[in-house]
Write a structure and sequence with these properties.
This protein is of the alpha+beta class and about 90 residues long. The chain has a single domain, classed as STM4215-like, CATH 3.30.2000.30. The chain has one helix and five strands; from the N terminus they run ββαβββ. The protein has a five-stranded antiparallel beta sheet. Strand 4 (about 55-70) and strand 5 (about 75-85) form a beta hairpin. The radius of gyration is 15 Å and the shape is elongated.
């Protein structure tokens, strides 16, 4: 698995200040393995209590998946996550 891109920008609601993050990951391998790892990464990130970007992660969701499969069962999957963190 490779980190392809990470971007962050300021975010605020009526009661919180923080940062919105976009994280793009690439996973390569056999299609079944790629799918299993993608699901595991999403589950682990969603369940984790992480400090992120100088704050606490309050939400992370997979917002996009772009998967390419060749005729031999190999796959490349690009996963995009959007996360919100609030300043401590």
């Amino acid at each position: 698995m490779d980190v392809v891109d990470v971007t962050s920008s300021p975010w605020a609601s009526a009661t919180f200040e923080g940062t919105q993050h976009r994280i793009c990951l690439s996973i390569r391998g056999r299609e079944a393995d790629v799918d299993a790892l993608a699901a595991a990464v999403e589950g682990d990130l969603s369940a984790a209590d992480l400090e992120f970007g100088g704050g606490t992660l309050i939400e992370i969701v997979r917002t996009n998946t772009d998967k390419t499969v060749d005729g031999k069962g190999n796959a490349i999957s690009l996963l995009e996550f959007t996360a919100l963190s609030v300043l401590d």
